[in-house]
Each structure stands twice: as structure tokens, then as C-alpha cells.
Protein: Laccase
Amino acid sequence: MVIPWCSSMIRFLWFSFALLLARSVVDAATANYTFTVESMRVSQLCNSTDIIAVNGQLPGPTIEVNEGDAVAVNVINGSPYNLTIHWHGILQLLTPWADGPSMVTQCPIQPNSSYTYRFNVTGQEGTLWWHAHSSFLRATVYGALIIRPKNGSAYPFPAPDQEVPIVLGEWWSRNVVDVENDAVSSGQLPRESDAFSINGLTGELYQCANETFTLDVQPNTTVLLRVINAGLNTHLFFKVAGHAFTVVAVDACYTANYTTDTLVLAPGHTVDALMVTNASAGSYYMAVQGYDSLSPTTMAISDDTTATAIVRYNSTSTKKNSTPVMPTMPKSSDSATANAFYFGLRGPASPGAPAVPSTVDVNMTIELGLGQLPCDSSQSSCSGKSVAAAMNGVSFRLPTQMSLLEAQYNRTPGVYTADFPDSAPPNGTPMVEGTKVRRLKYNSTVEIVLQNPTAFPSENHPIHLHGFNFFVLAQGLGNFTPGNVSGYNLVDPVSRNTLAVPTGGWAVIRFVANNPGMWFFHCHLDAHVPIGLGMVFAVDNGTTPGSFLPPPPADLPKC
Structure:
């Protein structure tokens, strides 16, 4: 909860900061968008499926802005479902009411209602994305969010000749809300997807393929691929036959150049990669295949199909109907390739790169766990035990009557408890359910060891932090050794907002809690969110203008 200031002081400080903020954005452009969320029918995989989408598009509209711009998106919910939108990776500094996770920062937008999300994109450049943050609607309610350098500024790499968003997804041939409801009701994990997609299309290798995304390129040019894994539950391998990539950013954080022919993206990840079109004139498949991290591999159940798009050279020697060249894809269980990519990224070594904070105020170890809990009365087809997940033995439950951010701002008791544990309970301790948050002092530096159990079954969990980027100081397999800081990279660690914690392994992250509010920290495998694999950081107000929670906007949805 916030520190107990009198309301008049809060109003005075917020008014003072608002004046400063208004002056600072006089010269900034405002990007205005309207998102109308409605049903649309899509024919794919020999079926016609009704989906929920934005402005009749899959993927939805791309938001394109420059660093420093303001953004206003009016979301009109014409669907039959409650809905929120999350702007994945936007730091939302002092705009926590626009972050979007349902019942964390807002009540959902109800059918036939609307809400305008307002935020700034200050101090960020690169590829992010937006998506629904309520139920499995994220399967089709998503799109790219591109932040280019401020006018007059340049990329920290040679300017590309072409920029292309590549949004990867998963496709179900039935209503995804029903897929989730069936899983929750039965106490089981949801059925796997029926296909993968590239920019909304599955490609030529599936039955009844009718459209394929085609990227036309000129020979000997540089293409910036802005690749996004918008899939719900699957890590993805991404390749283009005959071509290599130079990774220059991940999660809208610049990196040292990293050369590879295989990109690996967990759900929620973005990768900016330069591709030089120096192959022989022709057509080449862009291919996407699932990486199944589940151990033992005999338990793997992920979709093992391949989505394709086409990279086609504009050349007189390219035959229009020629069969594209297919890349050799990794095996679906190839953890060596996945870990080499995830572990190999580094931050830029330039003088302007952000420095790792050296003093740590809060040390935590968070163990990620899968297990079981007794079925509850709402699970009509559950038999005895229900699959569950937990962080430090706590299976997280969202509130139902008021969002956590409203409870923090209004100091409303009984909505949550501020007793999330800093370490895992002893072995054998039963999993418990709760709405537990970890309170953090404003501007404190937090270090977290994320431990993925080595016991079977185990899988790679992409953990996403709202409201902050973090430094990835170290990663490894097996159990983390407490106090083993000699292996930390404090010189050029990569920064991210979503980290793939390896199967049977660990990772260490560090961030500064300089953004007051309620910030969700959860697995970005959507199947794991409703079963409890998450928690929330409650960051206190500071003591100066620009360091405390602003009041909620007038149109904030009500529960």
C-alpha cells in the first residue's frame, strides 16, 4: 500500500508534477488510435472460425511512434467478453492506470463500453507489442508497437533499407475462450494449438492453405525484421532459408551484435534482427516451428507443425512459381540451440549504455513450481485434483471486486496482503492460494534469483515483469548456488522485460523499483496464468513530484 500521506499533500504534489509534465510534452507528438474490438470470421485450416480481433485485422493495427511521443488509444469493446489491453514492454512511468492487466491495474472494459489508454514512450526505442490481457483473447487480439528514434536521431546500427514487422502467433480452430474455459473447468492444461502463423497466416504447409505472407526484397539490401512471438504457450524457432541474422535489440533494448541463423523467441519476446539479402535470386521460406522445453521429452505435447512465409527476391531471374527453399529447422526438443541463443545475448558496450546498479536493497529467490490443488466448486468437470502453479509456494489469485492498483491508491484493506515470501518454503510444504504482493520502497534495487526446479516435470518459463526492464546478470542449468556472484555479468548484461528461465535451471535479474504502482510479474505462457504462476510488486510512492501514484483517469472502467 502507499505510504500514509494526507490527501491534500498528494493532490498538491501531483498538480505540481502535472504542470512539469505538461511543459515537457509540449513539443511531443500524440499518436491517436481507435481500436474497435469485435467478432470476425476467418477461414483457415479447412474451417471457418469466429475470432475476436481489432479493427477487423489479424494481427491488429501496428502502432508506430517516435521516442518521446504520447499515445492515446481509445478501445471500444464490441465483443461479448470483458477485455483489457496491455502495452507489452511500455514502462508506463507514472501511467500505471494504462498498463492493462485485468484486475491488477484496472477492472476490465465490459461489452459495449470503452476506455482510452494514455501513455508516453519516453526513453524507449525498438519493437514492442500490444495484446489482450484478459483470458485467452490474446490468441487473436494483438499487434506490433514500433518505437523509432526521435526525429533527428539515428539507430545505433547502419540504417536498414526496409523494416518489416513479423508477428508470430498460434491458431486454434475453435473459440479460444472455450478452450480456456474447458481447461479451467476440468482442472487440466488447455489443448495445444492447431497451427502456428506468421502475420496471421499459417502458410503453404497446412491443409487448405489459401494465403501466405510474402516479403518482397531487393538483392543486396539490409532488412530489419521486427519479430514478435505473440503466441500463447509456445517458444518458437524462426529461420529464413539461406540467410543469417544480426540481432541488434531484444524487448526494445539494444544489444551487442549477435550473429545467428536461428532466432528463438519465448511468448512475449521481441527480436530486432538485420538480414542481408545476399543469397542467390529466388524464393526462400521463412519458417516457424515450436520449441518444446518440457522435460522429460516424452511428456511433450506441443504443436509440431511448421508455419511458413516467403522471402521473394525482386529479380528478373526469380521464377514467380518456383518452390521456395526450405531451411533446416532444429528438432522441437533442441534445448541446446534455445539456450545458446537465450544465454548468448549481451548488452551494448557503448559509453551511453545503462549501468548496472551496484548496491542491492532487496534480495529474493523465487522458485517456479507446478503442482496440484483440490478442485474447487466452480470446476464442474474436475475430478479430485486440479493442475496448479505457484511462485514460492503461493498460487496467485486475482481479486474479483476491485483492482489491486485501486486498492493501493485508495488504501482499501482486504483486497490483498503484502506478505509474499522472499524465498521458497521448505520441501514438502503444501501449495497455498492467495493474493499476496511484495511491497518495495520507491527507488530500491531488487535482485531476484529465479529457480526452475530440476525435478520432473519441468519446462522453460518466460517470466514477464510489467513496468520495468531488468538486467539479466547470469543464467545456468541446475540449482543456483547462493552467494555465487563471481559469474555475474555486471559489465554488459542484456536488458529485457521477459526472461526465459531454462528448464531445470535458473537466472538472476536486477532492477530499480522507480515506478510506483502495482506491477504484475508472471509467466507468459498463458496456460500458467490462471493456475497461479505469478505475483505482484507493490512499489511505494516516493517523496518528490514525479514519484507518486497519479489519480485514476475519469473513464477508468468499473467492476
About this structure: Helices lie at 7-24, 176-186, 335-344, 404-410. Confidence is low (pLDDT under 50) at residues 1-27. The two ends are 20 Å apart (CA to CA). Residues 362-539 form a domain with the Immunoglobulin-like fold (CATH 2.60.40.420).
